[in-house]
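hi! just following up on the protien thing from before. the input was this:
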Amino acid sequence: QVQLAESGGGLVQAGGSLRLSCAASGSIFSINTMGWFRQAPGKQRELVAVISSGGRTNYADSVKGRFTISIDNAKNTVYLEMNSLKPEDTAVYYCNADLMVILDTAAIQEYESWGQGTQVTVSS
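and the predicted 3d structure came back as:
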């Protein structure tokens, strides 16, 4: 029903920057929220940042002031601008979308989708 395509991960030195993108496609009626989670080896998946279609944001304390989340509702795409990266930011970053989708019956239903994950590695 809904696919999330992530891009932008990679290897960067500490203090550097990366920009992640996640585009949602499929039978989308509207977006509730889109966001980014991350999971480091041996750790639980944690929220990084989330944004509503109206632009309200919420960030993990560990990334406040360094990361910026934004959304393009027309493109169903969320971005995560990551600056001043630290080695502890190293993780697989997953896009998450909470959407209203159009079913085959034409009914509208809430639907949550996850991306496949993109690796972000910050070297010291």
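The chain has no helices and eleven strands.
The two ends are 41 Å apart (CA to CA).
cheers
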